[in-house]
């Protein structure tokens, strides 16, 4: 099989391999455990329950959402209001975009100059992501100038982003209400300039089945909503082992981010997840619900597990850690307890 050179992922990966001596050594350095992940069935929630005329059905649906957010950190939703027709339009235009020559994607400043590929900060294979993506702030999706020769992507992207934003805010409101707060709390602090849509492509990879399409991580925002295709590859950490998420063509996947875990005082869980490569290319679209950069994130109940911090402070700390250590430390940086947690986490990362 010819390895896809658009983008030139193999060149970068080979350079990391040479630096690390062998693939076997590199695999021991990351989250590879040599055991195939078992397939799991995420909690499935029918959102028609939130619109029911029966109060009990609405309450039960809201409880199911909160239970999944607490026990899994991930769940699936159906009857979410995003049509299959719109999904197909997005896939068609997304494919056209990623099929463009690498030079065009990298230099033409498409979609707010948001094109990214691989992992520029990687120093070894375990830190490398075999993927490419466009990260589009919601404030930019309506601007014609962002799309260049791909103007046909604008209309479905606008519609898709608006629908995902509405859904994310609705789910965040349900979760807030179940903790005794107003549904509108996230409407007031979330900002379109920091919320964004990410168009992902994971090229086919014949090098190894143990290469990350996306390295293990937690999401930094409040909520992420994901539309994945039929190929699969998403895995999450459950009960201290990796499990694979089976694609469902009718469902969207929702996961809790770090800020929601902090705001809920650890009631809801931001769970580590990753994407593994495949011999088939994979596409997905993710929507990230985030607050304004200066929003103060505090616990919704006391005693608080975390000290207060802004989204800007959190992002800066994550970027600093990735630059210095090659990985994200995340919420443990903001714990009110002593610094021993950081030492323990660092030791675990290097085992």
Automatic annotation (TrEMBL):
Gene3D superfamilies the record matches: B-lactam Antibiotic, Isopenicillin N Synthase, Chain (2.60.120.330)
GO molecular function, one term: metal ion binding
UniProt keyword terms in alphabetical order: Dioxygenase, Iron, Metal-binding, Oxidoreductase
Top-level enzyme category: oxidoreductase
InterPro entries given in the database record: DIOX_N, IPNS-like_FE2OG_OXY, IPNS-like_sf, Iron_ascorbate_oxido_reductase, Oxoglu/Fe-dep_dioxygenase_dom
Full protein name: gibberellin 2beta-dioxygenase
SUPFAM superfamilies per the UniProt record, alphabetical: Clavaminate synthase-like
Top-level lineage group: Eukaryota
UniProt-listed Enzyme Commission number(s): 1.14.11.13
PANTHER family xrefs: 2-OXOGLUTARATE (2OG) AND FE(II)-DEPENDENT OXYGENASE SUPERFAMILY PROTEIN-RELATED
Family: Belongs to the iron/ascorbate-dependent oxidoreductase family. GA2OX subfamily.
Oxidoreductase recorded as keyword: yes
Organism from which the protein derives: Morus notabilis
Coiled-coil spans in chain: none
Reactions that this protein is recorded to catalyse: gibberellin A1 + 2-oxoglutarate + O2 = gibberellin A8 + succinate + CO2
GO biological process: gibberellin metabolic process
Fe2OG dioxygenase domain: residues covered: 191-291
